[in-house]
């Protein structure tokens, strides 16, 4: 049994590079990042074809490292931007009332919004900026409406050239919680990492390119159990798998006690990186 994960690079850790994907590792100012390109529709990774850039942070409490991480986020987004990206809709996915799921809305609130200014034709003051609008659709449990339907409705009205969706992700490893950022041009399916599948927010559904930006903020209880068993070289893995599959209360996710402070740091990293990528004159605004 494979524990749930939204991180593409966790799927390739035990695989040799072959015809269905390519992988390249880089570093910038001590920040490690991996560019994974999935080439085929039907692949062992069970991920959509496209680019997946993973950024690894080791010292989240270090201000300088956070600045470097923001610069890598900016560079990753610039690499994935489609040729036409004058008008951008940024979508903050998640539930702001739940800390581990609040990253998307919190980052969206920090994005520099210019769309209304472009409508007022104040272009002279907006040189070096893109036309950017923000949407925080909340979650289906709060609205009763599929999030993807809300995003699609706004997209049809606004007619952006690009959608950037920000969300919390799931990982298989406790050590990666709040330490891994994934940026991909394949879109996102909200809730998939915790087994709560919703309609996809991707180009096929919205009709425009979608860049998804996410951070691994949760790990499942089942993944933790298997991680411990592997660490102690236990031979009881199959027995544990059978036990977990028959008990729904093991299908929970957990977060570290430092979540509030770390989400604040991550919010600033992503907001700065996205703002810098979308607005070349961001530092002057």
Describe the protein:
The chain has about 280 residues and is of the alpha/beta class. The protein has one domain: HybD-like (Rossmann fold), CATH 3.40.50. Helices cover about 35% and strands about 20% of the residues. It has 10 helices and 9 strands. It has helices at about 10, 65-80, 105-110, 115-120, 140-145, 145-160, 205, 220-230, 235-245, 260-280, and strands spanning about 20-30, 30-40, 50-55, 85-90, 130-135, 160-170, 180-185, 210-220, 255. A hairpin with a 2-residue loop joins β1 (about 20-30) and β2 (about 30-40). α3 (about 105-110) packs across α10 (about 260-280) and α8 packs antiparallel against α9. The radius of gyration is 19 Å and the shape is globular. About 40% of the residues are buried.
Keywords:
285 residues, alpha/beta, Rossmann fold, nine-stranded mixed sheet, 10 helices, 9 strands
Outline:
By secondary structure, this protein is of the alpha/beta class.
The total strand number stands at 9
Beta-strand content estimate: 15-25%
What structural class should be given to the helix and strand makeup? alpha/beta
Oligomer: single chain
What is the topology?
Layout: H1 8-11, E1 21-28, E2 31-38, E3 50-56, H2 63-80, E4 87-92, H3 103-109, H4 115-119, E5 131-135, H5 140-143, H6 147-158, E6 162-171, E7 180-184, H7 203-206, E8 210-220, H8 221-231, H9 237-245, E9 253-254, H10 259-278
Parallel strand pairs: 4-5, 4-6, 6-8
Antiparallel strand pairs: 1-2, 2-3, 3-7, 7-8, 8-9
């Amino acid at each position: 049994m494979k524990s749930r994960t939204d991180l593409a690079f966790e799927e390739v850790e035990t695989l040799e590079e072959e015809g269905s994907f390519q992988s390249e590792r880089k570093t910038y100012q001590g920040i490690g990042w991996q560019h994974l390109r999935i080439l085929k529709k039907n692949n062992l990774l069970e991920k959509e074809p496209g680019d997946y850039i993973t950024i690894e942070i080791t010292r989240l409490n270090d201000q300088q490292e956070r600045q470097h991480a923001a610069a890598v986020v900016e560079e990753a987004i610039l690499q994935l931007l489609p040729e036409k990206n004058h008008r951008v809709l940024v979508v903050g996915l998640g539930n702001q009332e739940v800390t581990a799921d609040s990253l998307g809305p919190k980052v969206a609130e920090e994005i520099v919004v210019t769309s209304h200014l472009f409508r007022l034709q104040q272009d002279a003051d907006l040189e070096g900026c893109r036309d950017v609008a923000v949407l925080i659709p909340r979650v289906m449990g709060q609205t009763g409406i599929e999030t993807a339907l809300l995003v699609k409705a706004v997209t049809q009205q606004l007619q952006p050239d690009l959608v950037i969706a920000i969300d919390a992700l799931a990982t298989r490893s406790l050590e990666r919680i709040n330490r891994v950022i994934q940026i991909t041009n394949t879109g996102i399916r909200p809730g998939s990492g915790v087994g709560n599948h919703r309609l996809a927010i991707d180009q096929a559904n919205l009709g425009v390119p979608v860049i998804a930006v996410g951070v691994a903020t949760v790990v499942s209880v089942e993944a933790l159990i298997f991680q411990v068993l592997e660490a102690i070289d236990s031979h009881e893995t199959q027995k544990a798998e059978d036990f977990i599959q028959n008990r729904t209360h093991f299908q929970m996710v957990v977060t570290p006690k430092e979540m509030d402070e770390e989400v604040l740091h991550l919010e600033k990293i992503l907001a700065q990186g996205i703002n810098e990528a979308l607005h070349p004159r961001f530092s002057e605004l």
